[in-house]
Amino acid sequence: MSTATPERTGGVVGARVRRHEDDRLLKGLGRFADDVNRLGQVHARIVRSTLAHGEILRIDTAEARALPGVLAVITGADLGDIPPIPIRLPRGDEPDGCLQRILPDEVRYVGEPVAAVVAADPYLAEDAAELVTVEYRELPVVLDAADGPASARMQAGFGEVDAAFSAAAHVVELDLDVGRHAAVPMEPRGLVAEYDAANGRLQVWGATKVPVFNRNVLARMLGMPAEQVRLHAMDAGGGFGARGEFYPEDLLIPWLARRLRRPVKWTEDRAENLVALNHSRQQRHRIAAAFDADARLLALRDGITHDNGAYLRTHGLLVPELTIGMLPGPYRVPAYQASVEVVLTNKTPCGTYRAPGRYEGTFAREHLLDVAADRIGIDRAEIRRRNLLRPEEIPHVRPLRALGTDMVLDAGDYPALLETALARTSGWRDEVARLRNSGRKAGYGFAVFLEKSGLGPHETADVIVEPSGRIRVHSGGTSLGQGIETVLAQIAADRLGVDHEDVQVVNGDTDLQPFGLGSWASRSTVLAGNAVDLAATAVLARARSLAARMLGAPEDLLEHAAGAFAFGDRSVALGEIAAACAPGSPYLEPGTEPGLAARRVFEVDHMTYPYGVHVALVDIDPGTGHVTVPRYLVAYEIGKAINPTLVEGQLVGGVAQGLGGALYENFHYDDQGQPQAATFMDYLMPTAAEVPGLVDTIVAEDAPSPDNPLGTKGAGEGGITAAGAALANAVRDALGLGEAVGRLPLSPQWICTELG
Amino acid sequence: MKDQHLINVTVNGAEHEVLVESRRTLADVLRHDLGYTGTHLGCEHGICGACTILVDGTPARACLMFGVQADGAEVRTVEGLADGDRLSDLQEAFSRRHGLQCGFCTPGFLMLAEAYLAENPAADKEEIRDVVSSNLCRCTGYQGIVEAITDVAAARREAS
Ligand code: FES
Ligand code: FES
């Protein structure tokens, strides 16, 4: 294909252009879900279970209904037969009875919706919701995954693991826990739904992530044709995997709007958000590695218990599957065996959170390698050097599957990036020594990781040239704050040779782009970006033939530059060419479609595998157990950075989130299953005082992906993947532990205990 | 009927007369009664700072104030920072330093910084970091935010 592809002319790909999103967001003109208002709208409030497990015996709604201004109070009985929420990425072996139902008779976690109230005003709706009383028969609760039966089991592996362990010179085995933490974006969820009885169309604002999938699910659950439902993606205050999946409210609010024939608005509050939005991460690993006398890996083994909370939500078994699929990371692992038991507990259900499965697995593997190096008596960097796949071993086909695709580690030089990161931070080791000499508990830790991105199977884009010369792009990507609007504009502008500011990107409108798969798994720049590139390329080919007719010159002698085609001293700009594509134009050949536009789909079979290194320097206050992180480095290979500033921003932001999970964030419960982290007073996200003042980044572009024309790999997750691992390694180094740290988060209490 | 109060409040220089229920938060009055939706609600319990506005020049959390408490006050919101289409120096710096990603927390950080720099034109980076630690951002890791405010402090010092 590349021979038919014209040279990029704009030079905008790779440039640090100013974000298109910034102007409106800085002026307070962004449009978030709660900013939408429709004429005559009314307000919903969800009544949630106060019990972790119970059978609903009776719901009394009479008092709530009697409150003036209340329009409706509904319970499960009103909904009739509505199927449970389906899995977005099914494997096919998900157990029955594990899917989340809408207003069920049996509640399985605190926060589960049991009824909904609609009133003229949101304050009134909240008053009324408090008047709804629910009578339960309490049922026993399971809060520790070790106490529950597994609902699903998965295995992955290859090679002769048992033989390798019996032949090993060294075997190292650790027990490690990863705490329950989650995405917690700053904007709580919100939805506005409006049903137009005149034409039977339903519109929903605020479901931003996978709008086309959500539209299809909603239409099916409501018994409507999909095209009668239109979802509008909005500005969204962060996603990180959790926001924008299909939750019970995504059915309830549109259902109420259709029933009441009034626009219905629902805005989640933070207390709801902390129990309703997907949690993530909670796993227990028993990980072991076998080494020969030279510290070369002979085999890796892991037995994992995955606490999935009360239901399988839209991600199904994806997180535990990714944990075992990605666990061997960038290493040469001759034999591997991992099993995972997925246990349902009476806690908020789990879904993905930025680098799902990899944050957990990278922590387990990289912590194991540090402990192993110490026990074997070799340098912690050396054990990795001996075991990282070398460039000549890549592409490396690994007999594993990840997200339903075969695993082919596509391009890279893992040891070189490790050396770069170590060299860049070599002075930090002296700093640690200096701090220790002055009586501080300081430590240096690092971790190597493999990421995955660019999951297909496809993404579609439209590129439309208007007679004004401006370009419109309709993409299935959605904007969760990552800057995808800017990146897609850069890609279109680069191909068309126009100013990127003349490109307007419309994301996630299901009417405009009904084939879009949305933004998740670091796929947008890879998939949507290449779809835009293909569509722009097609537009350019059509423009060239029109230009040839307009200029009376042979196509192949035309020069394309600066958004125009030239022959000698005459030229026509893209806008003029678009005007010449209007019906009745003498240049539009009879029988051809009017307009200068193209819709193209980009398809891929494999994911692409970016990789990187995290390095941390920590300084621990022995009195309080507070961990300061004065220095941090992320080195990340992403093939091609469309906008390096945005890539760096993703990395720095990811580090802050990863540090939260490593040191502070924890959804804890009492022994009745009552959530104890239900406000930002108890769920501790890092502030500017806790994160490193300066995160150093190395954005490497040495190993472009061979699987897409732009050569790009996803940049959304590499800032977080190894943060738990690097910080745990640094803290262990600081404390001088011989053993493993055992858990994340490494709370101040735990650190104080370790310090004695 | 709940008790209602007629209040006068000036927002970004424009005077408004509005009837509010006693329990209605200032955030809801601004966002929903007056249409200044740039002020965001991230927690409604005073921790995240996304709703930070200036009340008579002092930063306040709009989710922790009632509308009636703003009777007679001068309020400034993020919508009042730019001069028409021209961004203020702080807004410019946030964009230049990549101090925002999703932009949800941004109005709160901008208003906080606006008030802080007005009082402490000589602020250095460590003080700025300390002050912005009163607000939460989930996207940026705060780096760009601190750099942006530090740049503006330096530039304003230079100019004065
Ligand atoms: S919304 Fe006011 S402090 Fe969070
Ligand atoms: S930019 Fe998203 S929360 Fe701050």
UniProtKB/TrEMBL annotation, chain A:
Q: Which InterPro entries does this one have?
A: Ald_Oxase/Xan_DH_a/b (IPR000674), Ald_Oxase/Xan_DH_a/b_sf (IPR036856), Ald_Oxase/xanthine_DH-like (IPR016208), AldOxase/xan_DH_MoCoBD1 (IPR008274), AldOxase/xan_DH_MoCoBD2 (IPR046867), AldOxase/xan_DH_Mopterin-bd_sf (IPR037165)
Q: Name one GO molecular function term.
A: iron ion binding
Q: Which terms are listed as keywords in the entry?
A: Molybdenum, Oxidoreductase
Give the Enzyme Commission number.
1.2.7.4, 1.5.99.14
Q: Which residues form the Aldehyde oxidase/xanthine dehydrogenase a/b hammerhead domain?
A: 27-140
Give the enzyme class: oxidoreductase
Query: Domain of life of the organism in this record?
Result: Bacteria
Q: What is the recorded name of this protein?
A: Carbon-monoxide dehydrogenase large subunit/6-hydroxypseudooxynicotine dehydrogenase subunit gamma
Record organism: Saccharopolyspora phatthalungensis
Automatic annotation (TrEMBL), chain B:
Q: InterPro entries of this UniProt entry?
A: 2Fe-2S-bd, 2Fe-2S-bd_dom_sf, 2Fe-2S_ferredoxin-like_sf, 2Fe-2S_ferredoxin-type, 2Fe2S_fd_BS, Beta-grasp_dom_sf, Diverse_Oxidoreductases
- Where do the 2Fe-2S ferredoxin-type domain residues begin and end? 5-81
Q: What is its EC number?
A: 1.2.7.4
The cross-references to Pfam families, in alphabetical order and at most eight, read: Fer2, Fer2_2
Q: What pathway is this protein said to act in by its record?
A: Alkaloid degradation; nicotine degradation
What keywords would UniProt list here?
Answer: 2Fe-2S, Iron, Iron-sulfur, Metal-binding, Oxidoreductase
Which GO terms of the molecular function aspect are on file? 2 iron, 2 sulfur cluster binding; anaerobic carbon-monoxide dehydrogenase activity; metal ion binding
Entry keyword annotation includes Oxidoreductase: yes
State what protein this is by name: Carbon-monoxide dehydrogenase small subunit
Lineage runs: Bacteria, Bacillati, Actinomycetota, Actinomycetes, Pseudonocardiales
